[in-house]
Every structure is written in structure tokens, then in C-alpha cells.
Amino acid sequence: MFFFGRVVISFSFFFFLGRKYTCSRLAHGSVFLKRCFVFCLVEQLVDEILKLNEDPKIHGLVLDLPIGALSGRVINSVTPEKDVDGITDVNLGRLIRGDLSECFVPPAASAVLQLLDQADVLTVGKKVLIIGATGSLEAALQALLKKKGMITISSQWLSKNLKELVRAKLILKPEGILAEWIKTGSTIVTYDQITKLLQWLELNMSISLLFEINTVESSSRWITNQQRKRWDVRALKLQPLSPVPSDIEISRAQTPKAIEVLAKEIGLLAGEIESFGRNKAKVKLSLLERLKEHPDGKYVLVAGITPTPLGEGKSTVTVGLVQALGAHLGINSFACVRQPSQGPTFGVKGGAAGGGYAQVIPMEEFNLHLTGDIHAITAANNLLAAAIDARILHEATQSDKALYNRLVPTINGVRQFSPIQLARLKRLRVDKSDPSTLTPGEVSNFVRLDIDPSTITWQRVVDTNDRFLRKITIGQSSTEKGFIREAQFDIAVASEIMAILALTDGLADMNKRLGNIVVANNRKGQPVTAEDLGVSGALAVLMKDAIKPTLMQTLEGTPVFVHAGPFANIAHGNSSVLADKMALKLVGEQGFVVTEAGFGADIGMEKFFNIKCRASGLYPNVVVLVATIRALKMHGGGPNVTAGKPLTKEYTEENLKLVADGCSNLQKQIQIAHLFGMPVIVAINVFKSDTEAEIDLVCQIAKHSGAYDAVSCNHWAAGGRGTVQLAEAVERAANEKSTLSFLYDLKLPIVEKIRTIAQKVYGAKDIELSPEAQSKVDLYVKQGFGDLPICMAKTHLSLSHQPERKGVPTGFILPIRDVRASIGAGFIYPLVGTMSTMPGLPTRPCFYDIDLDSDTEQITGLF
User: Fold this and answer.
1) Does one domain contain both 673 and 577?
2) Coiled coil located at which positions (predicted)?
């Protein structure tokens, strides 16, 4: 291979590894690289190559190394997309296979072919003997000459039959081939001719320029890949069975694509994912920077009517819809769903991967632990809780001087404030950085948060339904010196840190939000934050991986982001802003992102618009409202539906009156969506006991009530094929013009915002605040939090605060028992009635059916 030591590149880089380099700018943004050789260990070399593979500014990488250093491991550590030397196994394999549009041809081989072309000897059927070429050059020459229709034979210098091979062949002749060996009429190409060609190449198109051509081609391919286009996603085939097997049996029967394969299909770069095993991967936030100039796709929100305790299948519809869009209509589509809590997984409702033939797979991994995000939230939450009680104890048992000496210790003769302590001093308006210069009064203000224990709102959390943790007593050990107080546990997904994860738009924003968490008030009525406690940086460290959405796939191989998991009845109930933003960029302008809001439209959808859309700046194009005949019959006066008990005949036999009466709840939920200016498509999640007459009646009433369309969906039994009609309706509706209208102005008083939601969404006559709730409202206004949106904590089983009231209750007074503030997340949340933030286990929880086969290690009983 010939290298002339000069590289001039107009709009992309290629990088020669193995030499130190300096860069000097040339005209038009070109780069001139000057190098001197250095030796390094193989491990260092591979590490450097891997770093360059991930650098989007470098489009070509050449290994200018001694032959001994070019091991297979080193060569193949170069990503094929940047292998402009064409020597990796992947590129050579593509060349040999004839896929010239997908590979890079080694520049030296290209130069030889140009020589032969100039000599006018490239004749179909001619025999060519290649002497002395090895490795990638030999393979490339053979492949290129065969593509020209020539017959190639290779030989090395020590070959015993070299003389015989030389006869009657076209020869790339080096010195050492005797003239008498050559048969009359053979074409001879000598090194003199090669040298002349190379001189010509240096003047016109040197091998360096061939490198550049490959690099330009690499850059061009990269640019093409960044452009919005239809994905080349290989759909996984479904073979639905009847009767439909259990969810876990269906999930286990399908073999998912390797997550790296799916990532590549949807346009993710290798350096943008962090694999967690074969089936899931974290996606780095750098994706948003790379795609920031790209247009967003269409945005679809899946909500529902007021559900039964069994749930009405919003997750199943979400998954079925993206399977239909992606696997059957060929449209780029992404589902964005929440990570399930282990509370319902082992409690009543079960998992949240969807169901039947519309699932996220593998469903065991989806429902159990996933990538540990909820555990990270639990750790961060409880670290903050521990910091509160520890600070109260230390302040109560130490003098100002002792506290100061421990908070700002002298280490190796140096005493200095940490960055978070300097930030606290700034908030205290103390403009000093030398610990020795603070006055006694400044020291006292600095070291004493003076937390009022009666105002602590921050609770410990655990991701288990445990009713006996709803009220506990802490500090009973003698080592806590009598500092005993009542506290409680919430379920982990109710943590404000979960809400922050779902609403943040990046690491800097998350860090700021974590610092803004208000955990209590001091004795002067001023808020005490996580940053005051000095713990916000540590919280961010615990959350640094959890902030990245997790990539998984559906049963039919379409992509899914799983991220965040706040409950909708005690938090805002939506998946993350970051997942939605990433997905919208990846699908492109004509693609679709489908996300789900928890529980009924009055709960999750209202919070989606008033909280999530305000935080993200993203507005949906259409709302899909999920209904079931079962839930409509319940709202029409049917018997109570109870988890674990068989349905009565009213639900298993046709009953048009119950359906018609229950459609009042459907009509109310359509009306709520219209309050926000959104077109609504009603999706009827079909069960095997539903009749055509019942389904037709619901479709008719829905359309008469203002729905854009109403369709039945059979994704549970048929996968995406059973939801194609819904997908087509969504595609039509998304192209209609819609404008989001928020329900209230943030400048309204807190009480008026609560009243607006109660009256316009729930249908209440009015609200009634307890004295405690009113005093909290007054305090939050005084502290400057009055302009935040409202996140109602209310039962999801009724439009009212009373779970037993079905249909569309009216004339009720909505009781506000308490009001709390999630300042880091950015909302005020009133607690309605007896709403609890820690669920309990039923008489027969799901865990009775869940087990592990000790021989196969397979999980049974999950649903």
C-alpha cells in the first residue's frame, strides 16, 4: 500500500491511528493531519479505536500501523461504517459478496484496477495471476477482478509451482519473474508501469485521494442515514393461536431481535446505546443533540374511560396500535410506556406489558426490575429521607462551632467549602469563599437549617404494596437520643423523584429539580430544600443512568421506549418527556409516537395536558380513548366488578340497555378531551363475550357524541393485524388541524385551579378545603409557589371522590383533605377524600400464582 503522507478533506475527517497527530486548519474548513509514529499496547489501541468509532465528527479511520500490530482484534475493532481502508472482515465480506454499495473498497486495490483499466487488459474470461499479495489486498483484488469477469489465481513467492502458474496468465509482475517463464501473448504489468501509474495518481488521484473518496462516501452515507426516511425494520411474524395462551406463554414463544439490531434499524448509532443483556438497552441523551434540527413526528395520546378495577387495556391498545402502524402499515412508529411498579405486579392488576398478542417483550424483564430505574429512585428518595432526620439530630446535639467544624473540615491542612455549600452561602447572601472569614452569625445561619419536624413532607418509599407502612414511628432506638416522630412510607412510584424523572428534559434540568425539592419548612416558615441539605448532587449521581430511556420491542418487533412510572391517581401518570422527545425525532415527520396516560381521561389525560405538555412543549395530534363493553356495562348499572371474582352474567351476555346507559361515562370522557381541543378516536378493546350489536351501539353513540371515529380492536387475539382499522383512523385524524387549549391559566389562584378541574373535568358542584388544606395553600402562596399547575390525587374508579359512584356523578362537593407541594417536579397536589399514597395487598394477591422453575429458571404465573 502506498501512502503519500498528505490528507486534505473538504467536509469530513478521516483519521490515521497509530501516529500522534496535530491539526491545522486549511481553507474551506479542511483539515491537514501531520503525524509521527508511536507504539502502544493493543488494549490502548483498541480503546482509542472504540472512542473514534463513537465520534460523529470522524467519518473515516485508517490503521497506519506495522503489520505485526494489525491483528484481527485490532482491525475488526474499527466499525465497518468508518473503515475507509476496507480491511475489516465485514467490509471484505460485503466486497466478496458483491455488495459494493454497502462496503468500502481498499484504495490500493482500486488503484491496481485503475492501472489495469488504463492498460486496456480487463477482458472477460482472461486469467490473472496475483503474486505476493496477502490479506485484505489479495481478497479485494480477487473480488474486483472476478466482478470484471476474469479468472484469478493467487500465489506466494515460495510456491513450488510458480513457474507453471505464470504461463498463459495476465501477470502483476514484480522483479524476479524470469522472461522465459512467460508464454507468448501474455499481458505483463511491471512495477515500472505501476510506478508510472502511481506517479499519475499522485498528480491526479493519489491513493490518499482514494482514501478521501471513501471518507466522503462514508460521510455521505452517514448524512443519508440521518435524513428522515422509512425505517427498514424487520417485523417479527406472529402466529396467533386460539384459544389465546397466557401472556407469558405468548411472550416466551416469540424470539425478540437482538436489541443492537433493532437500534440500528431505527437509526440509532452504536455509541448511543448501552445494552443491558440481549433484549434491552439504555439510550443516551446525546441522541437529542444529534437530531435537534430534525422535525418531530405525529404525537398520539392513549387515554380511557373510567376503568373497572381490572383495567381496560390502554397499554394493550398502545402496543397493538404501534404494531399495526409499524409492522402492517409500514409507518415509523414508537410506543412510549411507563415502567410498571412491583406493587400491582404482585398485587391485583398484574404487569403492564400489554396482553395477548400485543405486548412488550420479554414481558418478564419488562415487569421485573427492568434496568433498575425504580430501585435508583428508591435509593435516592431514601437517601434524602435519611439526610433530613440525621440533620435534625446533629443540629439538636451539637453547638454551632462543632457543626461547622464537621460540615467544613480541614483536610490535609486545607479547609474549603464544597460547591453545594458555596451555593447555600449565596442563597444566604453571604458573599464569602474562605471558611475562616465567616462571622459567628453567618456560621450559625449556615449550619442550622432549623427544620420543624411537624412540617416534614418527605417520606420514605418502597416498591411494594404494604398497608402497614402507611403510618410508622421512627427513631425509637436509644442511639437516636429520643428524637422520635411519626412518619410513613409511600409506594416508590409516588416519589417526587419519579415525577421529576418523568418531567425533566436533561441532566442539568434534573439536577436543578432535585435541588429544588422542598422537604419541610424551618421554624420561620421558610422552605427547606434538598440543596440546603447538601444532598442534591448525590441524588443526581444515583439517577444518572435512570434518566436514560430503555429501548425494548413489541411482539412484532417494533420499538418501545420504557421510561418512568408515576401512578396517575397519586402522581401525574405519564411516561417521560425525554422518551417522547427522542421517539418523535427518531420516527421523522411522517412517523407516529404513541404514549399512554394512566387510568381514565379525567385523571391521566388531564394531567398530561396541564402538566406534561406544559413541561415538554409537545402537543399531541389526536387522542385515542379506550373503552370496553365490560366497563360501560358497569357504568350503566351493572354489578360491581371485583378482582379475583368471576364476572356475573350481565357482563358475559348481551345487554344493550346496560351498554347504552354506561355510554354516559364515554360521552363525558370525550367531552373532557374536547375541552383541550383534541380530536378523539374511540377504540373499543374487544373481549370474546362482546357482541356485534353491543360494539355497533358504542360506535354509533361515540360518533354521535363528537368522536372523530370509533372502531373495534382485536389486537389481544390477533396482534397488530387486529388494530389496522384503528391505525388508519389515527393516521387520518392526525393530519387534521388541532390546537391545544389548556384548562386553566397558571396565574389563577391555587384554589381556583382546583375548582376548575373539579367542575369542568369531574362534574363537581364545588370543592371544600379542610382547614389544614387551606393553611397549606396559604403557605405555598406565601412561599412563591402559587403559579404551579395542579396534580390531583384522587381515586381512578369514579369521576367523583367516591369509588362506588359510577357513570357520571353530578352535584357532589369534592373534599380536599390536604394539599402538598412537589416543587422539584413543578406542581401542587391536593389529596382528595381518603386517597392513600401506599396501596395495600388484597386477600389473594397475584403472587400466589407466581413461581420459578428451578430446573429451567423460567418464571410462571406473571400476567
Assistant:
1) yes
2) none
- Return all residues near 756 (Cβ < 8 A) that are at least 6 apart: 743, 744, 748
In the residue annotation, 222 being an active-site residue is answered as no
User: Has 687 been annotated as catalytic?
Assistant: yes
Given the residues 276, 599, 676, 827, select the one marked as catalytic: 599
Domain that holds residue 108: 10-219
Active site residue 765: no
Return the CATH number at 696. 3.40.50.300
Q: Which is the catalytic residue, given 211, 334, 346, 716?
A: 716
> Is 745 domain-assigned?
no
The answer to whether the pTM exceeds 0.85 is no
Question: Where is the domain boundary, 517, 543, 569?
Answer: 543
**pLDDT bucket at 531, cuts 50 / 70 / 90:** very high
**pLDDT tens digits for range 368-423:** 989 999 999 999 999 999 999 999 999 999 999 999 999 999 999 999 999 999 99
User: Are residues 433 and 459 both part of a single domain?
Assistant: yes
When pLDDT is averaged across residues 709-716 and rounded to a whole number, the result is: 97
pLDDT surpassing 70 at residue 225: no
Q: What is the pLDDT of residue 281?
A: 97
Dihedral of CA atoms 144, 147, 153, 157 in degrees, nearest 10, equals: -10
The residue annotated as part of the active site, out of 349, 513, 755, 776, is 349
Catalytic, out of 94, 298, 338, 548: 338
SS3 assignment, position 289: helix
Q: CA-CA-CA-CA torsion for 150, 153, 156, 158, nearest 10 degrees? A: -140
Q: Is residue 1 part of a domain?
A: no
CA distance 500 to 498: 5
Same-domain pairing of 622 and 670: yes
Q: Which of 316, 371, 464, 504 is catalytic?
A: 316
Q: Are 360 and 299 part of one and the same domain?
A: yes
DSSP assignment of 776-835: HHHHHHHTT-TTS-B--B--SSSSSS-TT--S---S-EEEEEEEEEETTTTEEEEEETT-
Please indicate whether residue 314 is annotated as part of the active site. Answer: yes
User: Does any domain span residue 172?
Assistant: yes
In which element (H, E) is residue 127 found?
strand 127-131
Task: Based on the fold, state whether residues 121 and 209 are members of the same structural domain.
Answer: yes
Identify the active-site residue in 280, 298, 314, 581: 314
CATH (domain of 519): 3.30.1510.10
Answer yes or no: do 674 and 574 share one domain. yes
Answer whether residue 2 shows pLDDT above 70.
no
Among candidate residues 181, 200, 687, 863, the one labeled active-site is 687
**pLDDT tens track for 315-331:** 999 999 999 999 999 99
Q: Which of 303, 379, 380, 568 is catalytic?
A: 568
Q: Do 212 and 172 reside in the same domain of the chain? A: yes
Residue 166 has pLDDT above 60, yes or no: no
Compare 85 and 191 and report the one with higher pLDDT: 85
Specify whether 568 is catalytic: yes
Provide the pLDDT for residue 179. 56
Is 504 an annotated catalytic residue? Answer: no
Angstrom distance (rounded) from CA 626 to CA 271: 38
pLDDT at 112: 74
Residue where a domain stops, chosen among 687, 708, 735: 735
